[in-house]
Every structure is written in structure tokens, then in C-alpha cells.
Specification:
single chain; alpha/beta; 7 strands; globular; Rossmann fold; two-stranded antiparallel sheet
């Protein structure tokens, strides 16, 4: 019988041959996708966001896990433009947003900086999740079906579970902002917001955890 013509796969065409992506590269891509998602989170642009986010998620699934050589350094920013390390006992940051592109973009950004991160599409989903008790910082959207981000924070506070919370919104309101900050939330950010502003709020929240 004629033998099949078997060809060796081209270099880089398999997962094993795929070039290892450095943590700095992953962080840079996460930051770019985060910037796009927050801009596209504005209502008039919302339909354009999913293709950008799905491309990022596909890249993350294909990307091989980095090779472990000795101790692994995880680096993040301690202030805008300055780098520092995330402690070995990495805190868990939970992202709650019914807008999937924004939720996944923030999740990717936080993870790329070395933190543990979980996400939920609603306040109810978060309240019934297994990671509620482990959450050190909460990033929640203001406008969500069923329960707003501020209502979620108030419910947690009333039940005795004080989780430092950052509220994000595409519909900023000065009155709501004042009520939220008076209630004790760490930050109130209007979409699209700067990455450094979010990370500054995260760092502030973790000092209260």
C-alpha cells in the first residue's frame, strides 16, 4: 500500500512549539484589552466590544503555561508608573458586572498583575458563590439587574461582611457618588476609567481588608 505522506508540523504550529509569552507581554495585552473594553462599555459602543474580548480570551486559552524555573516573581504596580510585588499570599479580588466584555477585561487585567480573581455576572450570583468569604476586594458595577453594586455593598455591610468595595458605572451621578462614598465604598469610577485609577483603588481597598 502507498505510504501516506506525513509532514512534520511547522515550528510554532503546536502548543509545545508556540513561543512562550512573557508575563510582561500578557500584562500589556491585558491592559490594552481593558482599555478597549472600558471605552466600548459606553452604551453607544457596547455592541462592538464582544469581538475584541473574545479574541483576548481565545489567546489566553491557546497560550501555554509559563515554564517554572525556581521561584516565580509576580510584579505589579505600587503607584502609577512604579512597580512592586504582590505578596506571596495573594488576595482574592472579585469582579461583579453583568456586562461580560467589561467583566472579562477587568478580570484579565487583575490576573495579569498577579492577583487571584473571580467573577460573577450578578450580585445574587456572587452572594451564593463559594468565593464570597475569601474575597478581599470587590469591584462591582452600579447598574445591574436585581441588585445594584451599592445595594450589594450595603447588604454585605448589614450582614457583617465588610468587603472593601469599588463601584464602577457607565452612568455617573454625583448624588449617587456622594451616597456611595459616605457609605464607605473605596472608590466610585466612571466608565471608561484609567487603569491606574482602578489599580490605585484596589491597592487602597487591600490595605483595609
Amino acid at each position: 500500500m502507498p505510504r501516506r505522506n506525513s509532514r512534520a508540523p511547522a515550528a510554532g504550529s503546536t502548543r509545545e512549539g508556540h513561543a512562550e509569552v512573557s508575563r510582561d507581554t500578557e500584562q500589556g495585552i491585558a491592559q490594552d484589552v481593558f482599555a478597549l473594553a472600558t471605552i466600548l462599555s459606553k452604551p453607544k459602543y457596547n455592541r462592538l466590544a464582544p469581538p475584541f474580548i473574545s479574541s483576548f480570551l481565545n489567546w489566553r486559552e491557546y497560550r501555554p503555561a509559563p515554564k517554572r524555573r525556581g521561584s516565580r516573581r509576580i510584579i505589579t504596580r505600587t503607584s502609577p508608573g512604579v512597580r512592586g510585588r504582590v505578596s506571596k499570599a495573594k488576595p482574592l479580588i472579585s469582579v461583579i458586572d453583568d456586562d461580560e466584555p467589561v467583566r472579562e477585561a477587568i478580570k484579565g487585567l487583575i490576573r495579569s498583575l498577579g492577583y487571584n480573581v473571580e467573577a460573577a455576572a450578578s450580585a445574587q450570583e456572587f452572594l451564593s458563590s463559594r468565593f464570597l468569604r475569601r474575597t478581599s476586594c470587590l469591584i462591582a458595577d452600579m447598574q445591574m439587574p436585581g441588585m445594584t453594586g451599592l445595594e450589594l455593598y450595603q447588604r454585605l455591610s448589614t450582614s457583617g461582611k465588610l468587603i472593601p468595595t469599588i463601584l464602577i458605572t457607565a452612568y455617573p451621578d454625583d448624588g449617587v457618588r456622594e451616597r456611595a462614598l459616605s457609605a464607605g465604598v473605596v472608590g466610585y469610577l466612571s466608565k471608561p476609567f484609567e487603569e491606574d485609577d482602578l489599580l490605585a483603588c484596589v491597592r487602597s481597598a487591600l490595605t483595609r481588608a
